[in-house]
Amino acid sequence: MPKQAARPKPVIAEPAVVKNGGATLASEAYQRLREDIINAVLVPGSKLRVQELCTRYGMGQSPIREALNRLVRDGLASLSDHKGFSVTSLSRAHLESLTKTRCWVNEIALRESMLNGDSAWEEGVVLAYHRLTRNPRRASAQPGGVRVDGTYNSSGEQAHRAFHTSLISACGSPWLIDLCEQLFDAADRYRHLARATSSRTARPRGDEHKLLVDAVVARDVDRAVAVLKKHFSRTHELARGQLSDDPA
Amino acid sequence: MPKQAARPKPVIAEPAVVKNGGATLASEAYQRLREDIINAVLVPGSKLRVQELCTRYGMGQSPIREALNRLVRDGLASLSDHKGFSVTSLSRAHLESLTKTRCWVNEIALRESMLNGDSAWEEGVVLAYHRLTRNPRRASAQPGGVRVDGTYNSSGEQAHRAFHTSLISACGSPWLIDLCEQLFDAADRYRHLARATSSRTARPRGDEHKLLVDAVVARDVDRAVAVLKKHFSRTHELARGQLSDDPA
DNA sequence: GACTTTCAAATAATCGACAAAAATGAATTA
DNA sequence: TAATTCATTTTTGTCGATTATTTGAAAGTC
Question: In percent, how much of chain A has pLDDT > 90?
């Protein structure tokens, strides 16, 4: 069937109205739920009722349910058979365990990374730091702590994560990087918790990141590790105050 | 409305016909799929078609789909939006990364555990070892390598896992223990792969476990760590031969 | 002959409704 | 008052069917 003339090959077909970036609803729900839990929009320990979430995110039960199942394995949500999902609760004991583990695992990752990292890696770290300083962070959390619904991961948050990942990116093991990112996510929840309440404790923390970069470019492994651990410990202390001893 | 006589409070009510252990279909599917992937019944890299799995496990799409979503976050299955699920494939590079990470992370865990562990912990290790030797393992894999469908995790496999967990159980961080278990699962896939093909390479490995226990009760940290790393390396070598360089 | 385009079959994703279990709360009893 | 029972209601878990997307093969074009 001959089509008329020489329709000039629709370059890419401009996919009409692309709802999302080609992602599925379930993936979108996963991302948004993940953000909302990490950013403490959904409060730790609270129940995650499926129908509520359906109206909140404007989709059916199936995608929500799939997203929740993924979150369970991230440790962000908990599931009890026949009793449903809830936001994994935070506690001092949990934080304690988390911080210790972060120190242990990240020390290895950073040491290996500094051992193997070439100049390209080093430049990646410097670049990531630059981006971190350019983006003000806390873009999502207004002074009053109010957050506009529907706000996604601020670029500042992403820059922070990217910086920490860049540090260990040359460790030579994707597995190790993955573990560190899991730990980072978990820690982020505590960071946001601390920020939400005491907003005047705002960071003289740009400094800490600078110290890290300095140690890295100086190739002083021990100093870098020490600074990193100190960094973790500060986050720990900030969040600690907001928590009771008993989980929930 | 008076009920007759003094019905002696139905002790626990004997729940008629409990299909499963009170678990949901989704949880059952999750467990079975997990086993089947770890035990290499489902071959690495192959597609996981939902309908196939429905007939295989005798349930609807919903529970299967939920189970698959959980597996994704375990790293056992992979999901590409709109293209569905598949069994995460194995490769030399992946194994390499995994083994390195196991050595690093388990070293920390074991060191800490031996530092903190009291005699109760020590007894736990000895007990776990005893159970390991009592259960022949490979109960699920017949000499011919054939596996009866529907077979669940053999008690031998469980004993092996329990032994390794007992070693690090006193490390003082649930997070770290969890990470080690993730790594253990991933490694188990390679172990089964190796076993499936070369069944005569069967273990003089009870020995390695014995050496571990000896080092632990002797409280010789460095020796224990060395043995553990060697143990990991051997698994690595066994599986390595079965793999091509290119993943899939 | 190699490369598109088209179309049909297969598969994935989502919806809406139903069934099963747990939480809620008022009425009853000790 | 405190505890127990039972019916009501909410919420979870599952199914079947519908819609959207990809895959693969046949037809067409340069």
Answer: 69
* Residue B2 pLDDT class (50, 70, 90 cuts): very low
The tokens describing B212, both together, are 């571990």
Q: Chain A residue with minimal CA distance to B64?
A: A66
- Residue among B70, B172, B176 whose CB faces A73 most closely: B70
With an 8 Å Cβ cutoff, is A161 touching chain B?
Answer: no
The Cα B110–Cα B216 span in angstroms is 9
Q: Is the CB of B26 under 7 A from strand D?
A: yes
Sheet strands (E) in chain B: 47-48, 77-80, 84-87
Q: For position B230, which CATH number holds?
A: 1.20.120.530
Q: Edge-to-edge, what's the strand order for the sheet holding A47-48?
A: A47-48, A84-87, A77-80
Look at residue B61 and tell me whether its pLDDT is greater than 60: yes
Of residues B231 and A141, more confidently modeled: B231
| A105 and B CB contact within 8 Å | yes
Instruction: Give tens-digit pLDDT for A182-236.
Output: 999 999 999 998 877 665 545 555 589 999 999 999 999 999 999 999 999 998 9
Round to a whole number and report the distance in Å from the CA of A150 to the C1' of D20: 26
Q: Number of structural domains, chain A?
A: 2
Q: Does B146 touch chain A (CB under 8 A)?
A: no
- Rounded to the nearest angstrom, the gap between the alpha carbon of residue B214 and the centroid of all alpha carbons in its chain is 24
Determine whether the interchain pair B101/A65 forms a contact, defined as Cβ–Cβ distance below 8 Å: no
* B200 CB-to-strand D distance under 7 Å: no
Structural domain boundaries, residue B34 = 25-87
A38 and A138 fall within a common domain: no
Binned at pLDDT 50, 70 and 90, residue A105 comes out as very high
Q: Is B24 helix (H, G, I), strand (E, B) or coil?
A: coil
Order the strands of the B47-48 sheet from edge to edge.
Answer: B47-48, B84-87, B77-80
